[in-house]
Amino acid sequence: MIWWSWTYDARCHLVTARPCLPIVELLPVKPSSIKSAGVAIVLAATCTPALAAGSDEGRAIFGLVGLELAFLEALALIALACVFVPLSRAVGLGTVIGYLVAGVVAGIGLSISFTGDPEGLLHFAEFGVVLFLFVIGLEFRPARLWAMRGTIFGRGLAQVMTCAALLTAAALLIGLEWRVALILGLGLALSSTALVMRGIDESGERNSVFGQTAIAVLLFEDLAIVPFLLLVTLLAPSGEEATLADNLLAAGIGIGAIALLILIGRYALDPIFRIIARTRTPELMTAAALGVVVFAALIMASAGLSYAMGAFIAGVMLAESSYRHEMEADIEPFRGLFMGLFFMAVGLSLDLSAVAENWLTIMAAVPVTIALKGIGAYGVNRAFGTPHPTALRIALAMGQHGEFGFVLFAAASSALILPGDVASVVVAIVTLSMAISSQSERAYQFVTGKPVHETIDEDYTDALGSVLIIGFGRVGQLVAQPLIAEGVPVTLLDQDTDRIRKANKFIERVYFGDGSRAEVLAAAGAGSAKVIVVATGKPETTLQIVKTIHRKFPNAALFVRAHDRIHAVRLASEGVPADAIMRETQLSALALSAQTLRALGYEDDEAEEVIDRVGKLDSTRLAEQIIAASDEGTRDAVIAAIAPEQIRRK
């Protein structure tokens, strides 16, 4: 989104403007986001009193004036968010739609200063955009980008440009001016990262061909918004022509600022954070992380470049830092604070009269634009050799438009490229396409004839095992086999219907259920079980199950499968004893190493002595790390610093 910073010169009565380009993406919004949005709105009210007062400073409601009135207005927005966001999630439309609806309702039903100046509220919320780009930079490690370069910059570029060309052509056909058509085509070509990623995660297909391809294209779209916004700046009408010397000077200053930022990030930031971490003061680490973002943004702004570009570069420079996870955890709450506020402000700024006048156009345009985008995505993926079922699924999953469209259209509107009524219409198109995107999986199943993912109405009346095993994958199956062979009564619980169907062919019964839900565990006999074994594959799922068991079923002996050392430290921080945590690869790796030593001529007792010595050293290190991570305030920093250590030679 392009915002113009206006400066008044009283001596010569001139007003000058300079653009800055923040960027935003739809993020998966956690349940706590409602509270975060509320706090952000309070921040908006308190930190920008001009928004709440301005020309209304003399106004009073219930005897409240000035800052008190600002709090009352913020409370009204919080209440709307708390009503519409849960409703939107309940009907499967996601949190962003809820925020947008809350903003629209505020604009219709409330007469407050925010509704009178939604652009000012958007300007305040843009700081969340800058924070978001910093976090995106932290995720874009250079090595990761290089490994995925072919798919990201090959298929991603081809898909976005093909979809943009089809949509731009459609806009030209209906008589729109070429610059307007181009911006609409580029904006509508971008998908919703959060909606697509949520579907991938829910189906557990992050590592599948479908998941990897979709993620790579989404990564390209995350990067593409930067040049798209720069294109808006180039296309924007300007009052005067800049000379070649001016352009060269501006380019040189920009390159110099980027080089300076890269040097600072490469050589100065990590030592600074190392010094700050030694103070063991969490709030200082948070302040330092925010300070890095603000500093990078100011460097870019001083060179006339995008705030967001500076934040992104700073994030990339810190992507390999041992403090990356700590900084991401510190920034995350602030990012969530402002993102909900941003989308409410988008809803507030929607021109409802333009939407009402063009509702037939909107209803007709939604299926047309989704179809054109789906055709483009399908064609590109087939051209890259993707099988028909996978290409079709990608086309349906990525057929919707995303929140980057909001940003690009608002930027074009601010730059006087996109008329206000057209911007409101396309925002409505994006919103409706997102609303129906939740049905993409059903559409795929309808087209291909594949059955819908099953759920099972389970009856736990015969779940009487003294051992409850949660997760019946490759680890859970091996855990269960000796117990079943010894006649130990075992209750097996899993959430994968296909796995349950296959398992029931060779074992008596595997129950269907979500092990993170207390009521499911209670029905499966967790209250009477002597031992509970958590063998689920996803670390975050395992942590949630462990928390539920500790809270509801503390009497059972608990043994947990850990994905790796970091997961083991986190489990220990949740109260699981160290000797009850089994890393899934540790014992097999040590056994394989012992066999290797024997093949090299070591006697059995010599090989066992070496393995025992290395195992004890590893256990000692793990115990030290668990103790260091016991303090909740420094836990994330300790875990982020865990790295392989060199083994001493004899």
Q: What's this entry about, in short?
A:
This protein has 650 residues and is mostly helical. It is built from 30 helices and eight strands.
Task: Explain this structure.
One of its GO terms (cellular component) is endomembrane system. It is a multi-pass membrane protein. Residues 464-582 form the RCK N-terminal domain. It is a single chain. This protein has 650 residues and is mainly α. The chain has four domains: 68-116, no CATH class; 118-235 and 252-448, Up-down Bundle (Na+/H+ antiporter like fold); 462-583, NAD(P)-binding Rossmann-like Domain (Rossmann fold), CATH 3.40.50.720; 592-649, no CATH class. The protein is 66% helix and 6% strand. It is built from 30 helices and eight strands. The strands form two sheets. A six-stranded parallel β-sheet has the order 5-4-3-6-7-8, sandwiched between helices. The protein has a two-stranded antiparallel ribbon with strand order 1-2. The protein is globular and about 80 Å long.
Question: Helix and strand layout, with pairings?
Answer:
Blueprint: E1 3-9, E2 14-20, H1 33-47, H2 49-52, H3 66-90, H4 95-109, H5 113-116, H6 118-139, H7 142-147, H8 149-173, H9 178-188, H10 193-202, H11 209-235, H12 244-267, H13 269-278, H14 282-302, H15 307-317, H16 324-348, H17 352-357, H18 359-383, H19 388-397, H20 404-414, H21 420-436, H22 440-448, E3 467-470, H23 474-485, E4 490-494, H24 497-503, E5 511-512, H25 518-523, E6 531-534, H26 539-552, E7 557-562, H27 565-573, E8 581-583, H28 586-599, H29 604-628, H30 635-640
Parallel strand pairs: 3-4, 3-6, 4-5, 6-7, 7-8
Antiparallel strand pairs: 1-2
Helix pairs in contact: 1-3, 1-16, 3-4, 4-16, 6-15, 6-16, 8-9, 8-11, 8-18, 9-20, 10-11, 11-19, 11-20, 12-14, 12-15, 13-14, 14-15, 14-16, 18-19, 18-21, 19-22, 20-21, 28-29
